[in-house]
Every structure is written in C-alpha cells, then in structure tokens.
Write a structure and sequence with these properties.
165 residues; mainly alpha; elongated
Length: 165
C-alpha cells in the first residue's frame, strides 16, 4: 500500500533532516501523500532539494506526477518549466489511459508549449492517439507562426491519414 509506506517516510521527514535519502524513497513508493509531500518540498526547498524532488517526479511510478509537472509549467519556473513540460508529455505518452483522457491532459499542457519544438512534440503525441478530436487539436497548429510547427502538424495529419487507409 503506497499510502502506508509513504506515511512512514513522511513521518521520518518531519522528524529529521534526511531529505536527500528519503525523497527518492517517496518516488519509489508513490501514492497521493508522497506526491503531495514531494510537491511541497519542491516548492519550499533549496536548489538541491528542488533538483532532488524534480528527479523524484521524473521517476514517479505512475502518471499521477503529471499534475505536479503541470503545476511547475504553470508557475513559469525558468529552471524547471521546460523540463517539466517534456516530462509531462513523456508521462502522458506512457500512461495506461484511454485516448480521450490523454488528449485532455495534452490540452491541459498546450498553453505552456511556448517553444516551437515543444508544440511540435505535443502535436506528435496527439497524433499518436489517432482520434478525430486529436486531429482537431492538430489542425489548430496549421496556422502557427512557425514553419517547424506547421510542418509538424502537416506531417502528423498525413501520418494519421495513412494509418486510416
């Protein structure tokens, strides 16, 4: 039970200053309490603790860390914003969720796809879902100001069309 295991580690975190040893254990165990604590430590820790917490989020045992990664993107964090975006897309791609749920998650992060290559990565992930709603999302990028993004959208749509035939 992740909640019981993380409870023991969180109690230890509250009693002693051994974050460097205990935070990685939270990532191995997972669970809501552990995720909440890692997010708190990320927000309130020094640079070393932030690095440690971010690494824990990258290695989280399931897709629930995506919510914290989205929050990091939304915060405008200059150090972790783009790595959190990339990690979020990877988490969505690997999550054992249906296409509609993944598309919702892609839509949730889309506004933080500032760089053209970030939008291109988002487009290719959406295309991998192969749904009409994913196609609709991709079509919105056909008028993007960057050639790279428009090309990615055209390529993704043509790939989706080839798979249908």
């Amino acid at each position: 039970d992740p909640e019981k295991g993380s409870e023991i580690i969180i109690d230890a975190l509250n009693k002693e200053d051994s974050r460097k040893e205990l935070i990685p254990l939270l990532a191995e165990i997972g669970g809501k309490s552990a995720l909440k604590r890692v997010a708190w430590e990320f927000e309130n820790g020094d640079a070393t603790i932030r690095d440690l917490c971010f690494d824990a989020l990258l290695h989280w045992p399931d897709h629930t860390a995506a919510e914290v990664l989205l929050d990091i993107c939304a915060s405008g964090n200059k150090t972790f914003g783009r790595p959190a975006f990339d990690a979020y897309l990877k988490t969505v791609a690997e999550a054992p969720l249906d296409a509609e749920r993944k598309l919702k998650m892609i839509n949730d992060i889309a506004r933080y796809a500032g760089a053209p290559d970030a939008r291109s990565a988002l487009i290719y992930l959406a295309a991998s879902l192969g749904t009409d709603r994913a196609r609709q999302l991709i079509e919105t990028y056909l008028s993007d100001p960057y050639d790279e993004v428009r090309s990615a959208a055209e390529d993704a749509l043509s790939t989706m069309n080839m798979k249908e035939h």
